[in-house]
Amino acid sequence: MEQFKGTGVALITPFKEDKSLDLEALENLVEYQIENGIDYIVVLGTTAESATLTQEEKSLVKQTIVWQNKGRLPLVLGMGSNNTKALVDEIEATDFTGFDAILSVSPYYNKPTQAGIYAHFAEVAKASKIPIILYNVPGRTASNMEVETVAKLAKDFDNIIGIKEAKGDLVQAMDLIAATPDDFLVISGDDMITLPMVLAGGAGVISVIAEGFPKEFSQMVNLGLERKVDEAYQLHYKIAPAINIIFEQGNPAGIKAVFAHKDLCKNELRLPLLPVDESLNNRLLDLVNRLK
């Protein structure tokens, strides 16, 4: 589980102007993360626009990242659904060669009870041969995984090793850290409160902003893990303006604009998502120039 401490990134899926996959850009993005100190990569998460990819495209994305990574960083595969049986069937049919864990979002839209959430992940845990990181993001799923539910899952299933906690609630994050076993990973899913979560005992972050500014963000997280508080907060306040505007017009629109300004990929998204408008694009360009 040590391999998932530090800074993970939820990698985007780059597209060409005709909206087809840009696999060359994807290879370059993987290399960019490795060269700049990222600790692990999350593949086919929400930030990857996975909802708009075909199964064939998802396979190509996985193959490309595994090939380019060449075992250098741990890889986490995003797999989630609000249909428990469909997800279990998918897990049982998946070849996890090259992947070290699953990131699985809490069931979305149909708003299960806490008992339903527990039962869902119990089935996922029984089906999976690799470790599972839970993902709580109430702003997208419309339901919150309560601390008691997560703590029970952590206690009952050895292969549920952590949670990406993205409610944006520092009190809930601290309650999770207190309620779960010492080796259970409470990982920030909210870039702005990553540092206070780490200092409270969290394991690090799965970040969006970090893939655009990997050197700075991973250094901040490492300083936090080393308890070098003043130095860590200096970096936090340097990066904070980027966090404030990167999500202003949705994700991954902001981070794709950043990558375009860095000449790492084209600023292309698939509908229903659109690129950021000219005003935000110009502010993001200024941000990239200031953080060089």
UniProtKB/TrEMBL annotation:
Keyword Cytoplasm attached: yes
Subcellular location: Cytoplasm
Pathway(s): Amino-acid biosynthesis; L-lysine biosynthesis via DAP pathway; (S)-tetrahydrodipicolinate from L-aspartate: step 3/4
Pfam families noted in UniProt: DHDPS (PF00701)
Group of enzyme by EC: lyase
InterPro entries: Aldolase_TIM, DapA, DapA-like, Schiff_base-form_aldolases_AS
Keyword flag Plastid: no
Residues at the active site: 135, 164
Residues marked Part of a proton relay during catalysis (site): 46, 109
Complexes and interactors: Homotetramer; dimer of dimers.
Protein name, as recorded: 4-hydroxy-tetrahydrodipicolinate synthase
Function: Catalyzes the condensation of (S)-aspartate-beta-semialdehyde [(S)-ASA] and pyruvate to 4-hydroxy-tetrahydrodipicolinate (HTPA).
Database matches in CDD domains: DHDPS
Catalysed reaction, written as an equation: L-aspartate 4-semialdehyde + pyruvate = (2S,4S)-4-hydroxy-2,3,4,5-tetrahydrodipicolinate + H2O + H(+)
NCBIfam families found in the cross-reference section: dapA (TIGR00674)
Keywords on record: Amino-acid biosynthesis, Cytoplasm, Diaminopimelate biosynthesis, Lyase, Lysine biosynthesis, Schiff base
EC number of the protein: 4.3.3.7
Family from the record: Belongs to the DapA family.
Signal peptide (from-to): none
